[in-house]
Design brief:
It contains four helices and 33 strands. It is mainly beta. The strands form five sheets. The chain has an 18-stranded mixed beta sheet that branches. The chain has a five-stranded mixed beta sheet with strand order 16-19-30-20-29. Strands 18-17-25-26 form a four-stranded antiparallel beta sheet.
């Protein structure tokens, strides 16, 4: 009897320890990760993220999606098919399951989470699939390059990304299952080569962040590369972030934070800017002016009442640099060639003063754009007298800056130029390692 009691105690103790071990299990990853690429073969510079979309012939297919932090939902080159089985999908086509026009997601996207463009025709319920018996759910999409309207069918989708601890890329994978939308291949003719979708990273409940769950925190880390030949990085999750050669320095230690501001007519991200400071001279920003972060506008756009005094001040502090004829869309340009010799420009920083004394600095690498062999320009654009938002931060100003959209705490983190820290957005180590 005593022996049986001892065995019972041992078994119960073992079970308790097993349960404790399960309860204390911490996954090896704290974020998911994907490479980011720069493209200059469309009408404007754009950036894409590479995502795994389907598992075919024992391997994952990859697709490139334009990064859009304002889009209400994901859409890409695929078709909807109600009865998917091996061999049913046409060759070189991605097949997904349709959302019916009678399902709540259809009404939700159409009424509350759609692209806001009055010129788009309202979608109807006239389309169906052979043999299905239900109407599909067409939704409006807007081409981010041309601004033209199109339609795509809402679907049940499936994306896969690698996991990470912020320093390594693990072989372990993470699946996300959003409602996205399928557009025909012809919808992507204006896109850069080999880019066949739009990845929504906004605050919309149909953007990708809404479909990524525990243990991942709702934090987006974005680092746009400045070159075509190397990749930047996109993180999702509250992990540390490491860039070579500083393999033991968490990039978060370089970040300053400012509150994100909600805008009633947008799913994008907005911040407050109090002043723009150039060489100790401050240009005040009107109190009601809003500032938007954009991954589709290549250069920072300033409303005319802000643009003019900023350009006048910059012209004054660079008066020793030979001027050049302006090259559209820029209004202030400089000659970088003297007697046939190329000279690198060094200009004062442009500081965006934010609430609580925070400062986002645009150094020369993010303020001066080399447009020809002999001409460089101040990379700011006049948005016009009625431009709204009053300030739009463009991607040239974000290159080689580490940015964090913290949806948990509603804050925006920024590093200013990583080049001054002897690293860049192209310095993440994408070598795969085993996570177990």
């Amino acid at each position: 009897m005593f022996l049986v009691l001892q065995l019972s105690i041992i078994v119960l103790s073992f079970i308790a320890h097993e349960h404790e071990a399960i309860a204390q299990y911490v996954p090896p990853y704290s974020s998911v990760i994907a490479p980011v690429h720069k493209h200059t073969d469309a009408a404007k510079p754009l950036y894409s993220v590479q995502i795994m979309t389907a598992y075919v012939n024992m391997q994952y297919l990859h697709a490139n999606f334009l990064i859009d932090v304002d889009a209400p939902f994901i859409w890409h080159d695929c078709i909807v098919q109600w009865n998917i089985y091996p061999g049913s999908c046409p060759p070189n086509t991605l097949c997904t399951s349709p959302v019916s026009c009678e399902e709540f997601q259809c009404t939700s996207v159409r009424t509350s989470y759609s692209y806001q463009k009055p010129s788009c025709s309202p979608p109807n319920n006239d389309s169906t699939l052979p043999g299905w018996g239900y109407c599909t759910c067409p939704v409006n999409v807007v081409d981010p390059v041309t601004g033209s309207c199109g339609q795509a069918n809402l679907n049940y989708d499936d994306f896969t990304v690698n996991t990470s601890d912020g320093k390594n890329v693990f072989t372990g994978l993470y699946g996300a299952y959003p409602n996205a939308a399928c557009a025909p291949s012809s919808a992507f003719q204006s896109f850069p080569a080999n880019v066949t979708g739009v990845m929504a990273l906004s605050s919309s409940p149909y953007a990708l962040p809404a479909y990524l769950f525990q243990p991942l925190k709702k934090v987006i880390g974005l680092c746009l590369p400045s070159t075509l030949s190397t990749s930047g990085v996109l993180f999702y999750g509250n992990s540390p972030y490491y860039l070579l050669p500083q393999k033991d320095v968490d990039i978060r230690s370089y970040l300053s934070y400012t509150p994100l501001i909600k805008h009633p007519d947008s799913f994008g991200y907005f911040i407050g800017v109090n002043n723009i400071v150039i060489k100790k001279r401050s240009i005040s920003i009107p109190a009601n002016a809003t500032t938007k972060i954009s991954t589709l506008d290549p250069y920072t756009i300033l409303r005319t009442d802000i643009y003019n005094p900023v350009v006048r001040r910059f012209q004054m502090v660079t008066k020793r640099i030979p001027p050049a004829k302006p090259v559209p869309p820029f209004g202030l340009c400089f000659s970088t060639s003297t007697n046939g010799t190329q000279a690198a420009l060094r200009v004062p920083d442009i500081d965006f003063s934010l609430p609580e004394g925070k400062k986002w600095t645009m150094s020369t690498a993010n303020s001066i754009k080399q447009v020809t062999k002999d001409v460089s320009c101040l990379a700011l654009v006049d948005g016009g007298a009625t431009s709204e938002p009053a300030i739009v931060i463009g991607t040239f100003q974000m290159e080689d800056n580490f940015l964090v959209f913290d949806l948990e705490n509603s804050t925006f983190g920024f590093s200013s130029s990583l080049l001054r820290k002897q690293t860049s957005c192209s310095n993440f180590n994408f070598t795969l390692v085993d996570s177990f």
